[in-house]
Amino acid sequence: MSPRIAIVGGGPAGLTLGVLLHKQNIPFTIFERRSQPTAAEIARPSGMLDLHEGSGLDAIAACGLTDEFLPLAGECSQQFWIANRDGDVLAAANGQGKRPEISRNNLGALLRGHVPAESIRWGHRLASASRGDGGIVLDFGHTRATFDLVVGADGAWSKVRSSALLLPDTKPRFTGMHCITLTVTHLTTRFPHLAAMVGSGSFLALGRRHAVISQRGPLDSARLYLWLTVADEHFATTAGLAGKPAAAAKDVLLQRDDLLQTFGPRVQDLVRTACDHDVATDRDDGLLDVRAFYTLPHGCMWPSQTGVTLMGDAAHLMLPNGEGVNQAMLDALHLSRAIGKAYATMVAATATEGAAASEARTQAGTQVFLEVLDLETYEKEMTARAVEEGEETDERIGRMFGSDDAAYEFTAVMNAMKSKAMAKGQEAQPEEKPQ
């Protein structure tokens, strides 16, 4: 008699919702476009995610996974260094245990370990979503299925969001920024001078409206994000980087004045070494990982619809600032509560129907579930949170990339935060941490 629930997307948001529904004995199916990862793939370095009190950590606690989470959160310390273009550290902070880091691969594995294997369908890339006579029809090309509730957790280019059901005319917009991701493993033993420069946590060298960002991770790795302010949306192709290995990028990056040529020798050495020794953990073809950054308009909303909603980047895509995964997991927490309330009401209502035919009870139960499920309130509250975070993100990114001397300006802001916190007898926390 359960309603048919589909979660499109098996990232942190979709998996968190799955765990929380499973804890309430509510059946669901997660559809993920990727193949099921192998143990070797999970062990590879991936992006580090810092989870926050009041959002990501609250979701982990609600999943009952805090004790399993903490041992996984030690591969990147909460040390946070801001440096100028020469690599000289201007400011340092520490999360003091309030923002533990976990690799994206480990977080996914942790959550998947608490979702029934039969509830995840791998290799299902959504082609379209539409409303049919019996509910929401999901077309995966090789198969179609109908559901009573569809949750789009399918990221920036969400097919659920872009369907005729919600926002077919709203597309992510280019931000004028690109990111090249490089990964070097066993940094301490192979390149100890670079390990000493970037430290055990996060390192940001800022200037000329660019950033060279390092985060430590599994296999004693350094994950480098070369965050470039370039107005050309097709920069990768225009610069001749598309379809090339990482080693082919170093001359372009380090010899162009409008890119990283003005960064100091130590930072350039870090970039050159990463290009030469990149292990390309995010790509199976071994080619350079370069992508443009996009966002959705703040306050992006749609007329609330029966049986379909969004969460995470599908609903409120913003620039990376450490909040994306936290807001996505918080969305899942709130939505799970709304679904749980409607499900409990449905069970109570149909329990009084006695020996009514199974099909009739199912139809009646689904109708009660959809009528009670308050998606509109969930969506309004989610959007309000996302607007606040989006505006704060724009302010933080503006500080980091707003001028040639952003490192010094950003340091002044951090020092002011630290002084204010010390005056209150608290330890300052580095809120301006990109991810």
TrEMBL record:
Q: Does the keyword DNA-binding apply?
A: no
Q: Which InterPro entries match?
A: FAD-bd, FAD/NAD-bd_sf
Superkingdom classification of source: Eukaryota
Q: Which UniProt keywords apply?
A: FAD, Flavoprotein, Monooxygenase, Oxidoreductase
**Ranges where the FAD-binding domain occurs:** 5-185
Under what name is this protein listed?
FAD-binding domain-containing protein
What organism is recorded for this protein? Answer: Sporothrix curviconia
